[in-house]
Design brief:
7-stranded mixed β-sheet; Chloramphenicol Acetyltransferase; 18 strands; acyltransferase; CAT-like_dom_sf; Acylsucrose acyltransferase 2; acyltransferase activity; 6-stranded mixed β-sheet; 2 domains
């Protein structure tokens, strides 16, 4: 047994079922074409509360657990596919089978977990073997409540990508917290979920729907390490000023600037020696973009498109130029969807994936960098009744499914900057974290 695993004790597992039975009319949830395309990886996210409010600070662990279990049961009534069973790659049998809810004790202060720069201990707050898993025999959503010996708690969720994306996960957690915070209130969560993605993206009619896949959204699985970097508000302002002063991009967004900067620095640390000198490796950036709008905000499931840029020469690495390319591609995608009819949404989206895939196929020797952003998602508003989380963590590289060259952008814990979770091969990370220009603007999180 490793020294890390010795920190965990008294694991308890329960099955939480929806508070009210799912109506017969909703028992079969058809996967949309986008649900079918994406791999069923389990997305992990954990909400850390080092100190509970006075009302809850002296409550026994079982009372906190019961409070969460009761409210989880109620919210599952609205998110009924999470408590069902996946039927191949076709549908979810919403049979109210329930979700797994683990409770555990971690025998160290929470700070020991949060201060681990390489996330080696972060997986302790997740159900063992679930984060990043592609094949898991349990429920489509798996939860863990971790009690630390300092009095703090962590609440984690691992959601199968087959039933939702990051937006779905964020809404679920806030909806759950709203019910937990006001158990006796009639307060209605403002976004009432609808699992109607198949009406916008009709599923394939192929008999063998398991063949539906796309290279762009099936991550490369290699031995990787993850590390987080923080870009403060002041440093972010400085990067934006550089872009504004040297390009025609107006009001560059946090996602555009940080994605371009991290991409630029990742390329710079992998320069190669050729006969004529030193050159960069051809590189492709894939950026996920939400389709809400044009889809309604309450549409759950997988609803995102993709756009890409190619960088082949060092002169293309200039930060303002990379941001300009990202903005141009994003605006083109937005225009395609702006006036699209419902029946046009799927062809447009598939064309975007085809374009990204063709770019990769036609540049087979290039390095691929995947970027996803949850900036502005209300993750730091998830208050179950004892205050908002001090930190939200999402290790994107685990022992189950390491993801090469994956970068997730999140709001920083103080809400005035951006945190970037980077997953790279170990030798690439060693070079990346020593890059002088990176360290001028980004600080390793500790």
């Amino acid at each position: 047994m490793s020294s890390v695993s010795r920190l965990v004790s008294s694991v308890c597992k329960k099955i939480i079922k929806p508070y009210s039975p799912t109506p017969i009319s909703l028992r079969c949830h058809k996967l949309s074409y986008l649900d079918q395309m994406i791999g069923g990886i389990y997305m992990p996210l954990a909400f850390c509360y080092p100190k509970l409010s006075n009302t809850w600070s002296n409550k026994p662990n079982n009372v906190v657990s019961q409070h969460l279990e009761n409210s989880l049961s109620k919210v599952l009534t609205n998110y009924y596919p999470l408590a069902g069973k996946l039927n191949d790659n076709i549908s979810v049998d919403c049979n109210d089978k329930g979700v797994e809810f683990f409770t555990t004790k971690i025998n160290c202060p929470m700070s020991e977990i949060l201060n681990d720069p390489y996330f080696n201990k972060h997986n302790l707050v997740y159900p063992k073997g679930v984060p990043g898993a592609y094949s898991y025999e349990g429920s489509l959503a798996v939860f863990q409540l971790s009690h630390f010996n300092c009095g703090g708690i962590a609440i984690s969720i691992c959601l199968s990508h087959k039933v939702g994306d990051g937006y779905t996960l964020s809404n679920f957690m806030n909806h759950w917290a709203t019910i937990a915070r006001n158990p006796m209130s009639s307060e209605i969560y403002p976004i009432c979920p609808k699992f109607d993605g198949s009406s916008y993206f009709p599923p394939t009619k192929d008999e063998d729907s398991s063949n539906v896949s796309n290279n762009n959204i099936v991550p490369e699985r290699e031995e990787c390490v993850s590390k987080s970097f923080s870009i403060s508000s002041a440093k972010l302002t400085a990067l934006k000023a550089r872009v504004i002063n040297q390009s025609e991009v107006e009001n560059p967004t946090d996602t555009e600037v940080v994605s371009a900067f991290i991409y630029q620095r990742a390329i710079a640390t992998k320069k190669v020696v050729i006969s004529s000198g030193v050159s960069i490796r051809p590189s492709i950036l894939h950026q996920a973009v939400s389709l809400r709008p044009p889809l309604p905000k309450n549409t759950m499931g997988n609803n995102f498109s993709l756009f890409s840029i190619l960088t082949k020469e060092e002169k293309e690495m200039d930060l303002p130029q990379v941001v300009s390319k990202l903005r141009k591609e994003k605006e083109e995608v937005k225009q395609k969807y702006k006036h699209a009819k419902i029946e046009e949404l799927l062809p447009i989206t598939l064309e975007q994936y085809r374009k990204a895939n063709d770019l990769l196929v036609n540049n087979s020797c290039s390095d691929l960098y995947r970027f996803s952003s949850v900036i502005k998602f209300p993750l730091y508003d998830v208050d179950f009744g004892w205050g908002k989380p001090k930190e939200v963590i999402s290790p994107i590289s685990t022992s189950n499914a390491p993801i090469k060259n994956m970068f997730v952008l999140m709001d920083s814990k103080n809400r005035d900057g951006v945190d970037v979770i980077c997953s790279m091969k170990e030798q690439d990370m060693l070079a990346f974290e020593r890059d002088e220009e990176l360290l001028q603007f980004a600080s390793p999180s500790t």
